[in-house]
Amino acid sequence: MTSRLRAREHLRDVNKYCTIVAMRTTFIAQRPRADGREPDASAAKRAAHRREQGNNLLERWQAARDKLPDGRRRLVDGILEHLDETVFLTSPELAARFETDPATVVRTVQALGYAGFADFARDLRSYFLSKVNPYRVMVAEAEDHKGAAHHVRASVQRDLQNVQRVHDGLDPAALAELGERLSRCRHVIVVAGDLDHPIAQFLAYSLSGIGISATAPTGEGLTLCQLRAVTREDACLGIGFRRCLRVPVEAVRTARGRGAFTLAITDADSTPLARQAERSLLAPIDAESFAGSYVGTLAAINALLVSCAHANPERTLALLKPTEAEYRDGLRWYREPAQRRTDRANGGAVQKGDGQRGSRASARARRGRKDNE
Question: Where does 160-326 sit in CATH, by number?
Answer without folding.
Answer: 3.40.50.10490
